[in-house]
Design a protein that fits this description.
This protein is of the alpha/beta class. The chain has three domains: about 180 residues, FAD/NAD(P)-binding domain (3-Layer(bba) Sandwich), CATH 3.50.50.60; about 120 residues, FAD/NAD(P)-binding domain, CATH 3.50.50.60; about 45 residues, no CATH class. The strands form seven sheets. The chain has a five-stranded parallel beta sheet. Strands 22-23-26-25-24 form a five-stranded antiparallel beta sheet, with helices on both faces. Helix 1 packs parallel to helix 9. The termini are far apart. The model has no long low-confidence stretch (mean pLDDT about 95).
């Protein structure tokens, strides 16, 4: 029975499936996912779940999938896409025919080439978060490799649980490559206030039993090591099927069409044309993935839809909420504006604002929406 097949059960995949189902109540809809859990939201894993804050993770209950006749096939690995026969092939040899296919396979954690890295935990899935939370119960000290958003959030949660935590990164301050030195200095202060130590301008050379060896030769005690060194979009299926890719992502237009007939891509794997920006923009966060999934679902259902929102996301470090809105690409210069209890960083290229980062500056955050749309 052909219909809509979705690969991946994250925000993009579930959004595509539920959007298509709402327009076509009788056409088969299937989601194939390697994850054994019911579809869940990932941002709260490092922001709330690890910190023991109340949060609702499930995107839908099992009853919702039954009631809406969305077939959720969990714990299955897709081995390939046959674009000529319009079929998806699983590792077990099962074939699922499709009229329309949405590839929303997300990203995989990148493990740095470090001796002993296999002992480090990652934080990409619910299973990862449960394992990390359990390990933290029996740990006195931890090292987090990487000072990106996930690394900073996880480190603050670990420190809040009473684990002496250090972040190790090649940057001089956390988040420097993405947000600049001044914003990074403020994040370093926030982390320090939560009890997180930061070791910058260095790397992890090796992970040994109960300790981490830094690139400087210094050794740090660590009952627990977390690898938060970034992610890589999982585009292997698309590449093997001959679907066009660029810069490590699947090329799609503003409707989420790939180069293959009736195949769409959304979320981390997609390099999509944003009509507001007027150029391809990588999607890296939950809200973007959900919106792209909706566009893919509408397009597959025969309705007109385009990706036109300005990307935005929030990061929670202890009780501080950093908000970013913008195109996520490089910038020529930044303007750091100090406020009484926060800050705003305006990122500019030419005469245009291309992004804004705020802490307790909601007026600037809201104002940036119109500025980015009119740039």
């Amino acid at each position: 029975m052909s219909g809509l097949v979705v690969i991946g059960s994250g925000a993009a995949g579930v959004s595509a499936a539920e959007t298509f189902r709402a327009r076509h109540p009788n056409i088969p809809v299937r989601i194939l996912t390697t994850d054994p859990a019911l579809p869940y939201a990932k941002p709260p894993l490092s922001k709330d779940f690890l910190c023991d804050r109340d949060t609702r993770l499930d995107l839908h209950s099992a009853a919702w999938f039954d009631r809406n006749r969305v077939e959720l096939i969990r714990g299955v690995t897709v081995r390939g896409i046959d674009v000529e026969r319009q079929e998806v092939v699983t590792a077990g040899g099962r074939r699922y025919a499709y009229w329309h296919l949405v590839v929303a396979s997300g990203s995989a954690a990148v493990r740095p080439p470090v001796a002993g890295i296999e002992s480090a935990l990652t934080l990409r899935s619910f299973a990862d978060a449960v394992a990390l939370k359990m390990a933290a119960r029996y740990a006195d000290c931890a090292v987090v490799i990487g000072a990106g958003l996930i690394g900073c959030e996880a480190a603050s949660c670990l420190a809040g649980r009473g684990v002496a935590t250090m972040i190790v990164a090649a940057e001089h301050v956390p988040l420097q490559r993405r947000f600049g030195a001044q914003a990074g200095e403020r994040v370093a202060k926030i982390l320090s206030d939560t009890g997180v130590r930061f070791a910058g301008d260095t790397t992890v050379a090796a992970i040994e039993d109960g300790r981490v060896v830094l690139g400087t030769g210094e050794t740090v005690e660590a009952d627990l090591v977390v690898s938060a060194a970034g992610v890589r979009p999982d585009i292997r299926l698309a590449e093997a099927a001959g679907i066009a890719t660029r810069d490590g992502r699947i090329v799609v237009d503003e409707h989420m069409h790939t180069s293959a007939r009736n195949v769409y891509a959304a979320g981390d794997v997609a390099l999509a044309h944003n009509v507001t920006a007027g150029r391809p923009i990588p999607a890296e966060h939950w809200r973007d993935a959900a919106h792209q999934g909706r566009v893919a679902g509408l397009t597959a259902a025969g309705f007109s839809a385009v990706w036109d929102i300005v990307p935005s996301y929030a990061s929670v470090i202890d009780s501080s909420v950093l908000r970013y809105r913008g195109w996520g690409a490089g910038y020529e210069r930044s303007r750091f504006v100090e406020h009484h209890n926060g800050f705003t960083v305006w990122y500019e290229s030419g005469d245009d604002v291309v992004g804004v980062l705020t802490l307790n500056a909601d007026d600037d955050y809201r104002r940036a929406e119109q500025m980015l749309r009119s740039a």
